[in-house]
Specification:
With 432 residues, this protein is of the alpha/beta class. Helices cover 38% and strands 15% of the residues. Helix 4 runs antiparallel to helix 11, helix 5 packs parallel to helix 11 and helix 9 runs parallel beside helix 10.
């Protein structure tokens, strides 16, 4: 048998499609990962402030979840199961109800979709249209909901919509309550559109939003806005869909991002960290009265990813059985917020914002410094942090929620050092 020794980076560059993106931004070959660290083929270690774009809230290879997966595989548990009834699925449904839904007084049916966030959004939009008999959907500028046709129609960025514009279903976009253009009275506009029979906008089946826009630049919807939006939807018989794919599963300091507003959406989409281990999984939580699907009406070959069910159950049991994890997230979030204000906002004039461990450094107000350049400098130092926003002007901090205090502080200092090196500001002026 002949063994071929190949340059991994060359193989990827030669044979993978030009659509790849993260491998361009972070040009290393990664071979292993644990907790809040990634390890390259050359042995270099990187602090992870990316977390699989919010997929690894519990870090890389957490032992509490990995052990359950290994045990399940050794017992020859089902790996693929369509939507058959299985012990793994039942375990997840029970864990979700016990540790998440019942403590919050929530009652939802759980729909398993094809295991990507965009398909969860597709299903939510589809069932909302079926339940109301209406077609139009209200979405928000700056929102990102996926790149398949239905969810892409609700996504704001023109870059993602190229090539499919003419085929996208009916969606009306309105400005988010905060954005690079400043604050906006979104609800006043929405009320006008709904109350005026000659507005030219069809009454929508649903309003779809992220309570914290991730890809759009980490813009946070104010609590009064969310509460008034819930009331407005109720008054007009419109379903409220919260896309919690990136902001959910503890990222903002509570399991659901909307808990701070005390509202109950009609439908919730979850993916990314819901599996607990980076395994593909997506679900829609549906109020029982809107669960009007006919059997098989929305399906997918991999809607029954049993390993994801096992991992998700373990994550819920381990991290959400009491409030210990939430208190840890909030302590770390306070550390990040304080650091960003002292070491980034005040000396450089950058805008910092966010909730929990979903934080942003907006460099649009900092002359002569590009966020992509800062990200590259951070990577050279051993920190992985991505950019987002309309023009990639924002650095998005998404460390694992389990990040150690040591590596959280080390990563933040790498970010501050990178900014210092790329500006003319003397180190003495930014030192804490």
């Amino acid at each position: 048998m002949t063994t071929l020794t190949l340059d991994t980076a060359t193989v990827v560059e030669t044979h993978e499609s030009a659509v790849r993106s993260y491998s361009r931004a972070f040009p290393a070959v990664f071979t292993s990962a644990k907790g809040d660290l990634l390890v390259g083929q050359d042995g270099a270690r990187y602090i992870d402030f990316l977390s699989g774009a919010g997929t690894l809230n519990y870090g890389h290879n957490p032992d509490s979840i990995k052990d359950d997966l290994i045990e399940y595989l050794r017992a020859d548990g089902l790996v693929h199961g369509l939507d058959l009834s299985t012990s793994a699925k039942a375990g997840f449904l029970q864990a979700l109800r016990t540790y998440v839904l019942e403590p919050r007084g929530l009652d939802y049916k759980v729909q398993f979709t094809s295991p990507s966030g965009t398909n969860a959004v597709e299903a939510a939009l589809k069932v909302a249209r079926l339940a109301t008999g209406r077609t139009n959907v209200i979405a928000f500028g700056g929102g990102f909901h996926g790149v398949s046709t239905g969810s892409l129609a609700a996504t704001g960025g023109g870059f993602y919509r190229e090539g499919l514009e003419a085929t996208l279903p009916q969606v009306t976009h309105i400005p988010y309550p905060d954005s690079p253009l400043g604050e906006f009275e979104s609800l006043d506009l929405l009320r006008r559109l709904l109350d005026d029979p000659s507005s030219g906008v069809d009454k929508p089946a649903a309003v779809l939003l992220e309570t914290v826009q991730g890809e759009g630049g980490v813009w946070v919807a104010p609590v009064p806005f969310l509460q008034e939006l819930r009331e407005l939807c109720d008054r007009h018989g419109i379903l409220l869909i919260v896309d919690d794919i990136q902001a959910g599963c503890g990222r903002t300091g509570t399991f659901f991002s909307f808990e701070r507003a005390g509202i109950t959406p009609d439908l919730i989409t979850l993916s990314k960290s819901i599996s607990g281990y980076g395994l593909p999984m997506a679900i829609v939580l549906i109020k029982p009265e809107y669960d009007i699907w006919r059997p098989g009406q929305h399906n997918g070959t991999f809607r029954g990813h049993q390993l994801a069910f096992v991992a998700a159950s373990a994550a819920l049991r381990h991290y959400w059985s009491d409030d210990t994890f939430v208190r840890q997230i909030r302590t770390k979030a306070e550390l990040v917020t304080d650091f960003l204000q002292r070491r980034i906002a005040q000396p450089y004039g950058a805008q910092v914002r966010g909730v929990g461990l979903m934080q942003a450094v907006d460099l649009s107000t900092v002359s002569g410094v590009e966020a992509a350049e800062v990200s590259r400098r951070c990577f050279d130092k051993g920190l992985i942090i991505e950019t987002c926003g309309r023009r990639d002007e924002v650095l998005k901090l998404l460390p694992p929620l389990t990040v150690s205090q040591v590596n959280l502080s080390a990563g933040l200092n790498m970010l501050a050092d990178a900014l210092t090196e790329l500006t003319a500001l003397p180190v003495s002026e930014v030192a804490a």
